[in-house]
Amino acid sequence: VFIAQSRASGSHRDVEDEELTRIFVMIPKSYTEEDLREKFKMYGDIEYCSIIKNKTTGESKGLGYVRYLKPSQAARAIEECDRSFRAILAEPKNKSSESFEHDYYSNNIKQEPRGNTLPFCMQPEFCSFEKNESRIQESVSKRLSVVSRLPFIQEQLFALFDLVPGLEYCDVQRDPYTNSGYAVIQYSTAASAIYAKYKLHGFEYPPGNRLTVIFLEDGSDSSE
Question: How far is CA 153 from CA 103, 111, 145, 148, 186, in A?
Answer without folding.
Answer: 31, 30, 15, 12, 17
